[in-house]
Design goal:
The complex is a heterodimer of chains A (256) and B (699). With 256 residues, chain A is of the alpha/beta class. Chain A has nine helices and eleven strands. Chain A has helices spanning 66-74, 77-82, 98-110, 125-131, 147-154, 158-170, 189-201, 217-222, 237-248, and strands at residues 3-13, 21-26, 47-51, 56-60, 62-65, 86-90, 114-119, 137-141, 174-181, 206-211, 252-255. The radius of gyration of chain A is 18 Å and the shape is globular. Chain B has 699 residues and is α/β, with parallel strands linked by helices. Among the domains of chain B are: 367-583 and 598-613, no CATH class; 652-699, no CATH class. Chain B is 52% helix and 9% strand. In chain B, strands 3-4-5-13-12 form a five-stranded mixed beta sheet. In chain B, strands 8-9-10-11 form a four-stranded parallel beta sheet, with helices on one face. The chains are: A alpha/beta (256), B alpha/beta (699). The A-B interface holds A 10-16, 19-20, 22, 37, 51-56, 75-76, 78-79, 82-83, 85, 210-211, 213-218, 221-222, 230-231, 233-234, 237, 256 and B 518, 591-595, 598, 621-622, 627, 629-630, 633-634, 636-637, 640-641, 663-664, 667-668, 672-679, 681-684, 686-687, 690-691, 693-694, 697.
Chain lengths: 256, 699
């Protein structure tokens, strides 16, 4: 039996994979991407967010046993089975809690529920090895091809991210690479070409593009944090189409 | 679609004068030389249908308008007509006057000549019964009135030829359709639709409201199929014809408010097999194109209906229209079967008004009322002093007291509603025209409300506040009997003071489990509520021996009912709304829609023969290609678990805009964007604008 540091459990998650899914958001992240839309999941420490107007105080962060989580998740089993739904484990960086995640995924598999792990990949390979057998799909963020940007802006290790990605694919895992489109960071033609080079070297075939949005800004406000992207409007359709065209030269591309 | 748009533009011109069909009807009474009340009534109806000059829109394909019933009258004249007509009273809603689904199956199958022939045959078979012959003659007269009305429209179409703005070809078609219906059964889809619409307009002119069109994809299908197979019409033209009719339902708003004309698609055939057909899709598209309230579309969803049909329904809902309401066919049919109807009639049910299940053309018009169980819960606190309250030693004892109160309340309700629907002079309030479209009236020579209809009348007791009651009982059990953190006498004092100075107690009550979170502790009371109240109403009969149905579909009356009630033991403050229809208390189902639906599928809705309503809102994003399948799966699971109805709304741009201006009105409006969901009102203005611009792309 393992415990997990859970931020929240969200039912009927419609953007975290196929079918009807429950997303388990885990708390704690080893990156510090300034555009993050889930800032409440960065720190492993429990936090309260007070939303104005909604008249709501929501607490994030609670230690739960995998059994507790599974019993909560299994309430919706009929909904998962109605399509090809299941559970997505997201965060934060779920791979930091790989032991608990491995246990959770195993139990879910024993219950016939499919598992997606949504990761940024900047963790030792051993963490992936631990969850490998009981993960059906990895949603794998790839934000930049630049070692420096990855290190200085996000606090991540690009070589590690790329090599983990490569290993997952070589070992035959179903991996969906997801590229968040961040204005001023990775949306130039060269950025896209460089990312494509990396992904081609890792034998990636499918790419999801996630256009930027700033819906997380209310959470920054509630956390009393300054959001660097508060005044950045979402990209217009033309820009997204332009970028999609670049990636489409090399991959099968889906825009979320 | 251009004809529809042009028609809707034409319809923007509101007629002048007042809507006063009685202006014509009273002429008929004045001229009448008949002695019998029914024949006088028929004379009134004859004038009502035939006296006004027909109105044909430039963009009409199917004719029949209420515009001719707008007359320029001064107040004195209106008053005179009113006082004259008071000698000939009509049945109102509570006396089974409207909210009816006519037997259009027979009308389309037999046509006017066939119906007249049936009347002739019945006259012969009842030759020794003067009363029946008299009533049959009055029915005959109203059908002749319908026939003459069609004739007058044909003449009008002829007269309008070569008039600027009118299309001669269309006028010729209208004329031929109308004339053909006088002498024969409908030969084409277009003629059949013309017949049905003219009958409907006649009902409206009689002053009837919420007259359903019923299973239009069933009774018009044979002719539709024939016409398509023979190249007489194509799909686009069929949709054009339907939307031409549905648009005119909205004429009702000239009189001050929208009509609620229920149209039913989907469901099963006589053998019980899924009967979704191509015409079901045509109807869906026509309602979508009209895009206005008035045509109230219901879809009977069977477990084996094609996903493409349900998906098409979701697409129409996603336009922001909110229709069709989705009905679980298996649950509704089982609920109606419990009432003892022939299985063939059960399979052919439709809805009237909003969602009320109805055996089309085989029972008198619908009646319902509101039953408020919360009052009887509060009575426990009002009727007993603190000492007596605290002597209640268990939840079981509390429930048994509540049950007694409810039982007395139900008895009282039945007494009142039976009295309200009682008519002392039924022979002076016959409905000869309506009776022509109700099974057995012609055969028996009897009025629809005097034993003519195949089945007796039913009454729908609309149960209020399942969420509020469940939450109250859950809070009482948890706080008084399990945790013993308070007593019934404290609760009595607190609700009397509207929780002033008792905020701590209120928060304790609020923190008890709530209905709608898939928590057995609270949900068991929703199950109890449904069974207990249905058991109670099952014991009663209407004046003519029909059933008392139950419903959980109180529309918006939960708001008004809440206004007159004190605070309640769930922590609700005085005057605040009760929970809506069959839904949990607003904002109390916090674990997400799947949990809500798991809770809501626990009550046995086969006990609610009238029907229930569950409202769920989703942001427009949820209706996009690639996302809609999730909604579809959600509904399939809800229905497979025994949910009865779900009404889905796409949060419109209008709502999103309003929420920007008035955030306090929308504390729990959730929007989803690419997997990210947020409470809308917590977002800053510019982020809200981002979402608005996204919705523009999808709508």
């Amino acid at each position: 039996m393992s415990d997990l540091n859970v931020s929240c459990i969200q039912r009927f998650s419609t953007g975290d994979g196929p079918g009807i899914r429950t997303t388990v958001f885990l708390k704690g992240c080893n990156l510090k991407c300034p555009w993050c839309h889930n800032p409440e999941n960065i720190s492993p420490i429990p936090q309260m967010l007070e939303y104005k107007y909604a008249n709501k105080i929501v607490s994030y962060g609670k230690i739960m046993s995998t059994e507790q989580i599974v019993s909560d998740i299994m309430e919706d089993i009929e909904f998962y089975r109605a399509g090809n739904g299941g559970v997505t484990i997201s965060g934060g960086e779920p791979m930091l809690q790989y032991e608990g995640v491995a246990e959770l995924s195993k139990q879910l598999h024993n219950n016939g529920v499919s598992v997606i792990i949504d990761t940024a990949g900047s963790v030792p390979w051993d963490n992936f090895a631990a969850v490998f057998d009981h993960t059906d799909i990895f949603y794998y963020d790839y934000k930049t091809a630049s070692e420096n940007d990855c290190k200085n802006v996000c606090g991540g290790d690009k070589s590690l991210i790329l090599s983990n990605l490569n290993k997952l694919i070589i070992k035959g895992k179903n991996v969906h690479v997801r590229i968040p489109l961040i204005p001023g960071f990775n949306m130039g033609e060269t950025d896209c070409e460089n990312i494509s080079d990396d992904l081609l070297s890792a034998k990636v075939k499918y790419v999801d593009l996630l256009p930027f949005h700033r819906l997380g800004s209310a959470k920054y406000e509630a956390l009393n944090l300054e959001y660097a992207y508060k005044n950045t409007p979402p990209s217009n359709v033309d820009t997204v189409t332009y970028i999609k065209r670049i990636y489409s030269k090399y991959f099968i591309v889906n825009v979320e | 679609m251009s004809i529809l748009k042009d028609l809707q533009k034409e319809m923007e011109n509101k007629p002048s004068g007042v809507f006063c069909p009685d202006f014509y009807r009273c002429k008929g009474y004045e001229k009448s030389k008949s002695k019998s009340p029914s024949m006088m009534r028929a004379d009134g109806i004859y004038a009502l249908f035939t006296e006004p000059e027909p109105y044909i829109y430039k963009n009409d394909l199917i004719v029949g308008s209420i515009k001719p019933y707008f007359v320029s009258l001064n107040e004195d004249e209106t008053e005179n007509i009113k006082s004259f007509m008071s000698k000939y009273p009509e049945r109102g809603f509570f006396q089974n006057g409207d909210h009816f689904a006519p037997d259009y199956f027979t009308a389309v199958e037999k046509g006017i000549p066939g119906l007249l022939k049936s009347i002739d045959e019945s006259v012969i078979s009842h030759s020794d019964d003067n009363k029946k012959i008299d009533f049959l003659k009055s029915m005959q007269k109203t059908l002749i009135a319908l026939s003459d009305k069609l004739k007058s429209y044909a003449e009008k179409a002829e007269a309008l030829r070569e008039t600027e703005g009118y299309d001669n070809k269309r006028l010729l078609k209208i004329k031929n359709n109308c004339l053909s219906l006088i002498n024969s059964v409908p030969q084409t889809f277009e003629e059949a639709l013309q017949l049905v619409w003219m009958i409907h307009i006649c009902f409206v002119s009689e002053g009837r409201y919420a007259m359903a069109l019923g299973r239009i994809d069933k009774y018009l299908y044979p002719l539709y199929k024939h016409d398509i197979d023979n190249g007489i019409i194509d799909e686009a033209y069929a949709e054009e014809l339907l939307s031409n009719v549905f648009a005119k339902i909205c004429e009702r708003r000239y009189t001050g408010g929208d009509d609620v004309v229920n149209i039913c698609i989907g469901g099963v055939d006589e053998e019980g097999n899924c009967s979704v057909n191509e015409l079901s899709y045509r109807v869906l598209h026509a309602v979508r194109d009209v895009n206005m309230p008035g045509p109230n579309l219901s879809a009977r969803i069977t477990h084996d209906c094609p996903d493409t049909f349900l998906d098409e329904c979701l697409k129409v809902i996603g336009t922001g229209l909110g229709y069709p309401a989705l009905m679980n066919d298996e649950v509704n049919m089982e609920a109606l079967s419990r009432k003892g109807y022939d299985i063939k009639d059960v399979r052919n049910y439709c809805m009237v008004g909003c969602i009320e299940n109805f055996i089309a053309g085989k029972q008198p018009p619908w009646v319902d009322g509101r039953f408020d169980p919360i009052r009887y819960l509060l009575d426990i606190f009002n009727d007993n002093d603190g000492i007596k309250l605290d002597s209640i030693s268990s939840m079981d004892e509390f429930i048994s007291i509540y049950k007694n109160n409810l039982s007395a309340g139900a008895e009282d309700y039945v007494k009142r509603t039976r009295a309200a629907s009682y008519v002392s002079d039924p022979q002076n309030r016959t409905s000869p025209f309506l009776s022509c479209f109700c099974d057995c009236c012609i055969e028996r020579g009897l009025d629809i409300n005097m034993g003519g209809s195949k089945y007796p009348s039913v009454h729908g007791a609309v149960l209020m506040g399942i969420g509020t009651v469940s939450d109250c009982l859950s809070a009482i059990e948890k706080c008084v009997f399990v945790e013993k953190s308070t007593t019934l006498s404290y609760i009595k004092q607190a609700i009397k003071k509207n929780f002033e100075g008792c905020e701590e107690l209120r928060q304790t009550l609020i923190s008890a489990p709530k209905y709608g979170n898939n928590d057995y502790f609270a949900d068991k009371y929703g199950v109890w509520y449904t069974n207990t109240l249905s058991d109670m109403f099952d014991q009663y009969k209407t004046n003519d021996g029909g059933a008392y149905y139950t419903a959980m579909a109180a529309n918006i009356s939960n708001i008004d009912a809440g206004k007159s009630l004190s605070a309640t033991p769930d922590g609700r403050l005085a005057g605040k709304p009760l929970s809506d229809a069959a839904s949990p208390t607003y904002g109390c189902d916090t674990r997400g829609v799947t949990s809500t639906l798991l809770s809501l599928s626990k009550p046995d809705y086969t006990r609610c023969a009238c029907g229930t309503v569950v409202n769920q809102k989703f942001s427009p994003d949820a209706f996009k290609d690639g996302k809609r399948d999730k909604l579809l799966q959600l509904i399939r699971v809800y229905f497979s678990r025994g949910g009865q109805e779900i009404q889905i709304n796409s949060t419109s741009r209008q709502v999103l805009k309003d929420a920007m201006e008035n955030p306090e009105k929308y504390p729990s409006l959730v929007v989803r964007v690419s997997g990210f969901s947020a409470i809308y009102v917590t977002l800053s203005k510019d982020v809200q604008e981002d979402i608005l611009s996204r919705t523009q792309q999808t709508i």
